[in-house]
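Regression report. Comparing outputs from two consecutive submissions.

Submission 1:
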Amino acid sequence: MDNASLIQPFPGLRPLPELVARVSAPPYDVLNRDEAARLAAGNPYSILHVSKAEIDLDPAISPHDDRVYRQAGQRLAEMKAQGLLVADPAPCLYLYRLIQGDHAQVGVVAATAVEAYLSDRVRKHELTRPDKEDDRTRLADTLSANAGPVFLTYRRSAAIDDLVQQQILRAPEYDFTAEDGVRHTLWVIRERAVLEQLVGHFEALSRVYVADGHHRSAAAARVCRLRRQVAGRYTGAEPFNRFLAVLFPDNQMRILEYNRVVLDLNGLDETTFLERVSQRFRVTPTDGPLRPERPRVFGLLLGRRWFRLEIDPRWVDETNPIARLDVSLLQDHLLAPILGIGDPRRDGRIDFVGGIRGTDGLEQRVHSGSMAAAFCLHPTVLADLMAVADADAVMPPKSTWFEPKLRDGLVIQEI
């Protein structure tokens, strides 16, 4: 197991077993400030006091204020000092199973090489939003730790499958069901022979893919560069040369849609907006919320009315792996030309709503008056994600929503 390997064991910083359900929490980016505050209320152990430390400060303070990062660092230090988080005495790998309803997936928790990310062995499919990348960079650098993992996937390997299945027959370290009904189970792999086999099997993979966590992985690369500059000399063995990730086989992944809400209609009234949309889409009113049954179909919520949008096939280039994606079709033929949202990474007039919130989540944003319209999409398929990444191309931001979500704080990697 050398410094250049794709994955390595590491001494994970972990909650006491009796506290794991209270320490771990959903990832920072699926909760807004109010939701995180409610979830952590009355629970001083929650990792949300670290990953979203603004919940413990005056609501008037920006989430990007220096005080937020100092608060996060202080709370993590307290949790370590109080013995709530304890580091494994030797490097380990971890197996992490999530069960949501009848869906189950098992991944390997490992320290993954930043060099693999920089060389595109870890393939990306989205550009990051600068503000979010800055935020996660500052947090990881302040904490000297990665409290939440990057979600990676790889083309299924029978050798990895077989070894993982053998190991999960053992008694787990953690096994609990979270407040959202998802069951989380973690096994600790300490035996050197098994560690070497897993590292070797992953080393045989030519590439892996970022499923979720583009901002975390980009931030890890930035922290690595910063620390290399400060150190002047480095061997590659330093913990900052790696980032926390969970790697899942592609045949176990589940993708939901990633929907859009927009602040305004770019100066158009509803009638004119629909007329413009109908130039490239067939627009049909519906009796209620529409969750598209297939690609090339979109649900539109405008005020209190739902519409079915079906793009004219003439506008679809099936030979282009990016342009044919539903997220691209919506962006290129509606959001940009009609609503003037040319760069959804930076434009404050657009926001994104994960499919787990369903059409109710879209209606909440529009009916409250905070947004003018919402678009419900059909989920992107994993084969398309890999095809885009393999082509060294990128999807529009927020093209995929993976479920179930990994918990932050189950295993922390100190850097």
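Submission 2:
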Amino acid sequence: MGNHDNDRVVVIGAGVAGLTAAATAARAGRPVVLLEGHEAGGRARTDQRSGFSFNQGPHALYRGGPAWRTLRDLGLHLRGHRPPLRGMRGVRAGQVVPVGGRQVAAVVAKLTGARPSAWAGRSTREWVDSLGFGREAVETAEMMVRVATYVADLDRLPADLALRQGRQGLVHGVSYLDGGWGTLVEGLAGAATRAGATLRRHTEARSITGGPADWHVVTAEGETLHATAVVVAAGGPAAARKLLPVDPHWGELGAPVTAACLDLGLRGPGPKVVFGLDVPWYLSRHCPPGDLAPEGSALAHVLRYGARDARADRAELVDLARMAGVRDEHIVEDRFLAHMVVTHVLPSPERGLAGRPPVVVPGPGGLFVAGDWVGDRGWLADAAVASGRSAGLLAAEFRATLQGDDPVRVA
């Protein structure tokens, strides 16, 4: 184990989870190589179009959550703005109507008063049905759950997950990052490289062979990297299974959560937020207040929770934008994402987040996974960052365990 190459940690995938794992392991003092087959960022990339910063659909960072805390621990203090909710409206029966007042207050009271642990093992539909609300208040509750979780199928959504996520948003709020989520990617990549990690873009990992303390990561170019520990953070469960040299015995994990999204760069101030009440739609203006567009312009995301047929979904989103006041002459740039993976696994109500795969791959030591579908902490980006941090720390500690050294700790 005196060979420096064998002492290293190899992280596969430079999305949010992989970048977090690399930064954590490098800060713990281990040599780290991070492999990415494309550009860093994954679904957290931000694309520049005519001065507009388009995220991969609407992204919001939950304040006070696992990702928020870990980013601050890594020295990242990202600028952002809270969403503008004043004057929000809804769509019901094809008409734009006001949203607010007693119905929202009643749902907020139920959300903040509920004990998530008391609803473990049950669906969000069961929780909504227990409220005893009339139809319009039920629709308001369903809308608020969709906004907090990005999930439209409340029969499949664990109630304790929905309640925790809803309470988190109500108590701490969310942030639309200035400059887009690309700033988060750049910040994590910078934290990793400053700690000594090597980021190799356009280097695809094809396989993992070998055994504990001497894993061989083979790239598409035929190069073999030796490592004490490997973190697989390359996409969802299918991508991880393809790379892992052992059967992780995860079983059926659950279907992905998807969405269809129309991103709009607009002239002028842009529309106010519009929520679908009896339909799973959402329109939100992320700029202003966020810094995502040229001066005097706006950027909005129009989303359908649950992607279906691309043509039908796009037509629905165009209709919603028009109902919100967007006209063709307002549109400078537009992009349609027909089938966006919001998160790779929606666990069943019976199993909840505890049913997601653990960070440690069962079997031979030194193999770890990270992603938004891994671990029992957090949802969406919170899960990706939480699992990435755990995987990076455990991978760094694995060498110390083999050698009988004291475990490392992250500052």
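Expected: both submissions complete independently.
Actual: both completed, but the second showed a warning that disappeared on reload.
Relevant detail on submission 2: The two ends are 25 Å apart (CA to CA).
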